[in-house]
């Protein structure tokens, strides 16, 4: 568990976030299991491509920044996580107050009813696991059929979740 956390920190410090690659970006490429006791959830193995990244400005670890720079432009697209017809009941284009409430709900897809966001615990937050690890608890890593989110976006999401009480 500690090794995964150290690898995550080192990879995050070494990773650059900037334009290049496909429509989305790249996620942390770490071997082993995800941090915080996510048994059975494995992360990518191999090195991160230095040219990987999305045409996304790196968000700050706040809900407002994540919403503006990641959720709305990347996730809340037609047929995915917009409030018109949200996939798996997850609408990510809501205003900040509604999003705060919505993200505390259990995931529809999680076999155990894991909350989308568990304050202070990224490893117990279904939303984080869906974008941070190659093989999440259920379904596929998001964004579906696209390159993974840039490292900086995944790190900002983790930092925001860890900052919640």
How is the secondary structure organized here?
Blueprint: H1 2-14, H2 63-75, H3 96-102, H4 126-132, H5 151-163
Question: What is the number of domains?
Answer: 1
H/E series: HHHHH
| Distance, first to last CA | 22 Å
Oligomer: single chain
Q: Quickly count the helices.
A: 5
Mean pLDDT: 74
The number of E-state strands comes to: 0
Structural class of the helix and strand makeup? Answer: mainly alpha
**Largest sheet features:** none
Helix proportion:
25-40%
Low-confidence stretches: 1-54
Give the overall shape, derived from the CA principal axes. globular
Q: What fraction of residues sit in β-strands?
A: under 5%
What gyration radius follows from the Cα positions, in whole Å?
Answer: 14 Å
Which features characterize this protein?
165 residues; mainly alpha; 5 helices; 32% helix; globular; disordered N terminus
Question: Would you mind describing this structure in some detail?
Answer:
With 165 residues, the chain is mainly α. It has one domain. Helices cover 32% and strands 0% of the residues.
């Amino acid at each position: 568990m500690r090794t995964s956390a150290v690898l995550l920190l080192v990879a995050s410090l070494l990773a650059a976030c900037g334009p290049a690659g496909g429509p989305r970006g790249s996620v942390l490429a770490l071997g082993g299991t995800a941090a915080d006791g996510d048994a059975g959830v494995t992360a990518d193995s191999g090195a991160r491509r230095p040219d990987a990244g999305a045409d996304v400005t790196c968000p700050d670890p706040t809900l407002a920044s994540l919403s503006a720079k990641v959720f709305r432009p990347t996730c809340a697209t037609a047929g995915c996580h917009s409030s018109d017809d949200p996939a798996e009941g997850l609408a990510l284009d809501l205003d900040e107050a509604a999003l705060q409430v919505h993200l505390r709900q259990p995931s529809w897809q999680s076999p155990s009813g894991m909350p989308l966001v568990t304050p202070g615990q990224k490893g117990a937050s279904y939303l984080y696991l869906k974008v941070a690890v190659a093989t999440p608890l259920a379904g596929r890593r998001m964004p579906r059929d696209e390159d993974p989110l840039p490292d900086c976006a995944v790190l900002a999401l983790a930092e925001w979740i860890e900052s919640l009480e």
